[in-house]
Amino acid sequence: MHKKRAQVTVYIILGIIILVLAILLFYFRNTTETGVIMQELVRAQEIPRDVRPITNYVTTNLDDAAKKGLLLIGMQGGYIYEYQGGPVPDCNCSQSKKAIYYNGYWVYYDIHKQISGSSFFYWPNPPYYPWKKFPGYPGGISLPYSFSSTCIFGINNLPPLEGSSQYSIESQLTLYITNYLKNHINLTIFDEQGFKIEEGGINVSVLIGENDVTVFLEHPLSITKKTENIITNVSYFYTNPQIRLRKVYNLIDDTINKDIVDISFDIIDIEILDNYINDITIEKKEDRYKHDDIIIIRDNRSMLYAEPYTFQFSRENRNPALHYINIPSSATTIDISNINLKADDPDEDECFFSYILSIVYVDDKELKDWQDLVGVIITGTIPH
Fold first, then answer.
1. Is the residue at 257 inside a domain?
2. What is the model's pTM?
3. How many other β-carbons are positioned within 10 Å of the β-carbon of residue 293?
4. What is the DSSP string of 225-246?
């Protein structure tokens, strides 16, 4: 009698501990303490030895789902498509300028060219692109702010890391893992081992830390061992891939923002890594679709499937910008060989100069910019 009371007391105490941890998890769900609380909530459950193959099976599926979701997020520019179990409408065409097919994945465009004026001085198309008399101050006046901060050389299409948006990386991972578990967990395989299992719903939470990702699963199971009529209740599971997703994301977001505000910024310039932990590398695969590039970031301190964690995204080619050619208003002819032609290209492409009649062109073999020297006849040969 005393032994039974002691057992009941233990279960009551365990129940109280689990309840308190669950309340703390709800209260701290948006703080850094969440990951620790998740793990303690799982550990507080008393799981008999003969039931552990069932809980290990669920945990293994959870771990598989988390790692496969992280792989897709990284290989596809931060997006998981509907056919894969994510929320993003399926994309199967580079011509749509949504993604480039590369090494088995549709890599989303996280940098698009600007298609509309972002301020009173910006011109998205030649001949005044990006503004009149570039690279001087627009209109020849000094502005009280940095006009480079208006993102005139591109649009940042990287999804948010967290938040309620269905396209945030947190939300995408949550949906993908949920769908994966629904499609892969099959507890009837334990029927032949003498268990009867009743399942509750699947509720997934994803916490993206600085150095890891914690995935918490609430999936109530009532496990009955038929021969002994013993019931074990298990509700909580977690996995904790050691992927520095937040650090990698912050580097990518910083890189993209620099690339779209500063036409002279080199996207693979190693200096941008100075503010981040070592062992992160940036690589550029040029002209994967026409003149659009793929940028690849690898974190050698985050290993996934025995390889450094990779996050890659597509970058749309953007027009080179011809430096303004200032000639005397009285000039009727100019020798082009005497003009110091200059241009900047936001994609680090080589620039080529040419002229026809009074128009000087610069191009990257795909897009161009030009200036019409109205009323002026151009002669001579452009220096190489």
1. yes
2. 0.85
3. 22
4. ETTTTEEEEEEEEEE-----HH
Give the tokens for residue 334. Answer: 């100019």
Whether residues 325 and 313 fall in one domain = no
Quote the tokens at residue 5: 């009371």
Q: Report the C-alpha gap between 74 and 280 in whole angstroms.
A: 14
**Dihedral pair phi/psi, residue 37, rounded to 5°:** -65, -40
Cα 149 → chain centroid: 22
What Rg, from alpha-carbon coordinates, does the chain have? 29
Asked if residues 233 and 221 have their Cβ atoms less than 8 Å apart, the reply is: yes
Question: What is the DSSP secondary-structure string of 179-209?
Answer: HHHHHH--GGGGGGGTEEEEE---EEEEEE-
Dihedral, 266, 271, 277, 280 alpha carbons, nearest 10: 40
Residues paired with 216 in a beta bridge: 205, 238
355 and 218, same domain (yes or no): no
Q: What is the pLDDT of residues 148-191, one digit of tens each?
A: 445 689 999 999 999 989 999 999 999 999 999 999 999 999 99
17 located within any domain: no
Do 71 and 163 lie in one domain? The reply is yes
Total structural domains within the chain = 2
Q: Provide the residue range defining the domain that includes 326.
A: 321-379
